[in-house]
Amino acid sequence: MSGLGRRLKAYEDHKKLALNGKPETPADSLRFVAEMLCGEDGVRVIDALLEGGEMTAEEISTKAGMDLNTVRRILYRLHDHALVASRSERDEETGWFIYKWVPQPTFVSAFIKSVKKDVLKRLRARLRYERSHVFFHCGTGDPPIPFEEAVELMFRCPRCGGELKAFDNAKIIEVLEEKIRMLEDC
Questions:
Q1: What is the domain partition of the chain in residue ranges?
Q2: pTM higher than 0.70, yes or no?
Q3: Looking at residue 12, what is its pLDDT?
Q4: Span 3-109: which CATH code?
Q5: Is the Cβ–Cβ distance between 137 and 159 less than 8 Å?
Q6: What is the largest CA-CA distance in the chain?
Q7: How far apart are CA 158 and CA 30, in angstroms?
Q8: pLDDT digits (tens, 9 = 90+) for 90-126
Q9: SS3 163
């Protein structure tokens, strides 16, 4: 499972647990996803926004005690996933646009569904590939090679030159099926 798939599962596990005996709020979910996407700095940006409401990147930078460019990079990444929104207004003195940012905790579940759908699509594609191919390997730790490639290589490992023998990918298929079930259930 990809790193994002593992984090998605961690999020679902996190949601199932109560925080200090209280149900998780949309703001808690937003913090968790911000950490998943941007690390601890993402949480600091979200916390500043949740406390301050609509703010400029400069105000967030000051409130969170972070570098302005780091704050902007995080805001753009969160904006790409619709987890924060921006509104622009023209500064009367300079004529420049000022962007104000707001958190959008209600969009977290849509983001999670989208990521889950993407991860499931990739896992299912990999499962189809594993089921529809016969693999060979040399046994020295090199990755298995599909039958078509093994024929072209005359059943010799391209890395070590060893003889390629049939590889049983049943365990890989089993793991993929389990991961798919796990994501479908959460």
A1: 3-109, 133-185
A2: no
A3: 59
A4: 1.10.10.10
A5: no
A6: 75
A7: 47
A8: 989 999 999 999 999 888 888 888 888 999 999 999 9
A9: strand
Distances, alpha carbon 8 to alpha carbons 24, 43, 71, 86, 102, in Å: 16, 17, 24, 26, 24
**Amino acid at the residue 157:** C
pLDDT score for 53? 87
Q: Output the pLDDT for position 26.
A: 85
Mean model confidence pLDDT for the chain: 88
Question: First and final CA of the chain: distance in angstroms?
Answer: 15
Distance CA 78, CA 55 (A): 15
Which has the closest alpha carbon to 30: 118, 86, 110? 110
Name the amino acid, one letter, at 6: R
| Structure-block tokens of residue 39 | 């690390």
CA 40 distance to own-chain centroid: 15
> How far is the C-alpha of 150 from the C-alpha of 161, rounded, in Å?
12
Contact 135, 146 (CB under 8 A): yes
